[in-house]
Amino acid sequence: MLIKIYPENPNQKEIDKVVKVLQDGGLVIYPTDTVYAIGCDALNVRAVEKICKMKGINPAKSNLSIICYDLSNISEYAKVDTSTFKLMKKNLPGAFTFLLNTTSSLPKIYKDKKTVGIRIPDNNIIREIVRILGNPVLTTSVKNDDEIIEYSTDPELIEERYEKIVDLIVDGGYGGLEASTIVDCTDGEPHVTRQGKGELIW
């Protein structure tokens, strides 16, 4: 199912539909400030496992990333020191994934790797979904890392490809082609490990 939501003024009724799917353990494709992404309620382990299987992700070896609404409850999910928090505050919302060490309140599937990526995209649709859900959303890009092709930017083409695999696709307009910039903050000295769309302000 494809539903249209406008980023400037997300319709509450449509947002609620997406949230209901996530609450029921469903998988959703949605826009971010970078590329379209597939996600689920990050605290629903079965849904997280479904996405990992679908994308061929081994959670013990790959970093899982979650989208939060803002920085206010970030310490629930990741360990953040003062200087890292200041850096994140300067750059978020924005096209960044900050890699941090996990805390005990995330399910075990995240703790195998001991790190988690934190995203707060500059996109009203997904942030509003997360705010209403009350939990972070696990996020992984629709595109494959080795190829970014047209289907991953056009919601109707995404629907053709994924309608039998996910429960809902949010059409928030054309998506971007460039992934987020990854900033590794796990060893106390932040450094960029992948330069993407975001230009980090130090």
Automatic annotation (TrEMBL):
SUPFAM superfamilies: YrdC/RibB (SSF55821). Residues 12-198 form the YrdC-like domain. PROSITE patterns: YRDC (PS51163). InterPro entries: DHBP_synth_RibB-like_a/b_dom, Sua5-like_dom, SUA5_domain. GO terms for molecular function: double-stranded RNA binding. This is tRNA threonylcarbamoyl adenosine modification protein (Sua5/YciO/YrdC/YwlC family). It comes from Dysgonomonas alginatilytica.
